[in-house]
User: What shape does this take?
Amino acid sequence: MSNHTGDLTISQPPGCTENTVTNETPPAPIASTKGLNADLVFKGVTAAFAFSILVILALMALEMVKESLPTIKAFGWEFINSSDWNPVQDTFGALPYIWGSVVSSILALALATPLSVGTALFITEIAPRKFGGVVASLVELLAAIPSVIYGLWGVLVMAPWLQQTVQPFLIEHFGFLPFFQGAPYGVSMLAAVFILMIMVIPIITSITKEVLLAVPQSQREAAIALGATRWEMIRMAVLPYGRSGILGAVILGLGRAIGETMAVTMVIGNTPQISLSLLSPAYTMPSVIANEFAETTSKLHASALMEIGLILLAVTLVINVMARLLLWGMTRQAAGGAK
Amino acid sequence: MMNTVTLRNLKNSLITVSMVCATVAVLVPLGLIFFHIMKMGASSINLDFFIHIPKPTGETGGGMANGMVGSALLIALASTIGIPVGVFGALYLVEFGGSRASNAIRFAADVLAGVPSIITGMVAYTLLVVPMKGFSALAGAVALALIMVPIVLRTTEEQLKMVPGSLREASLALGVPLWRTCLKVTLRSATKGVMTGILLSIARVAGETAPLLFTALGNQFWSHKLTEPIAAMPLQIFNFAIAPYEDWHRLAWAGALVLVTVMFALSLTARYLGRSKQQS
Assistant: This one.
């Protein structure tokens, strides 16, 4: 009985249930042995399911490494340093794809970050609560659209619009810059940047919104009480407090942008070249996998695509861990601040 | 002095206006995408779309009936594999897991959730398509299940954590074995929240295309066996959108309308369930 009351004071469910079981077995003869066995089986089954996730992840990494060994052996570092991708002659260099992925993701983030943070600030700091809620749900709807539908819209609506309106304008007025040279194709690096921007905005916005909501109200009130305008309050109290969380949100957006496959494949033009011009078609790492993996010409070709996949996996892993650490730091800060 | 105050207020107004502009800039593409899906989809959709399979190149008409059935089958199969792993895994985390093991599993689930879906497809390819010597519906379903597991696991875990410990204790005190308590009390009282997570994960995989590219592969015709390539709506939308035929674009828009409608219905139901859970 004393054990029982002791259990009640512990509010942690896991420890609590375990204690109860061990204490319960001797005085409860009715369900004792049979119940315990069933419990052990039950625990074993749930454990098997839970640990299968670790196994899946390990298997994933292992398979990717194993399958990409042939190209790692054949080309070494040259693989990420050469732009010679020729499945017919079995020479593989992934530089154009890496270039395309890096440039498209970074530019998309550069455009998306101010828009997302601005929108999140609008939702949390400026708009009346109900209206802010409506905007937030609309932005979340944007996140629910599958990427193939973004691609469909991108290739059938946005790309023609870029080709007929935006790109000729850029060529005419900014054509002297290396970034806006060449013919207007429509499908291009620019199209990929725009579509990625639209796709990462909801992620960054909704996480930033959560982070901003975690900023204690007292911080805002203190700034306002000192005579700050709303912007000064945001700049001095809200943003510094949420800095690491917002950075985490942006990095999560980066992870999404780098791994994005379908929409980018549909609008980027799929041409493996390194060009400074945003108007020329390009290629990204996920796109080349999507286009070539189902019909590889040789073992080495498959292995080369696997190695691209491995690089992608490693990069997204690092990005996700970084983002989680930053966001985790933020929530801990928030918990500390609330005390 | 007055001057600085005016300046500060001016700055404040400028920034406020720019935030409003940012919000508008975010919402405009959303509006445009919806507008085009509605406009192009509504003008393309008809009864044929739901009851016919795609016509061969050059012939007009046809539909995506096989893709819809294929997608439903893939999702059902993926759910059968993915939901038990997610739900039981979460039960383990909440009821049994030591802190170290639980943290490792949680971390693995988060990492898995961040893996680009095309990589999931590649892994399913090497693990299933290569040994089975052929693209198959089964491989596609496994790839989708891999995406569902972390979502179901994390949402279920959150819901189970919210079940008060006193409920478990009451059940155990009545002599109910632990396993029955877990299933009939803990899991039962979190049903709504768990359903929300499951619906969200289904909404997520319903539109996934990349993991199916080299697993389910797609099929122009009906397929009956799980060991054969199978048609799926997102794959059909992809193939039709990049094809140079006006009539296929029409089908792609109609498919997009159907897919988006289904997904929004799922998300809204999930949200409704989630909300009523919070209120009660």
Observations:
- The radius of gyration of chain B is 24 Å.
- DSSP finds eleven helices and no strands in chain B.
- Chain B touches chain A through 97 residues (CB under 8 Å).
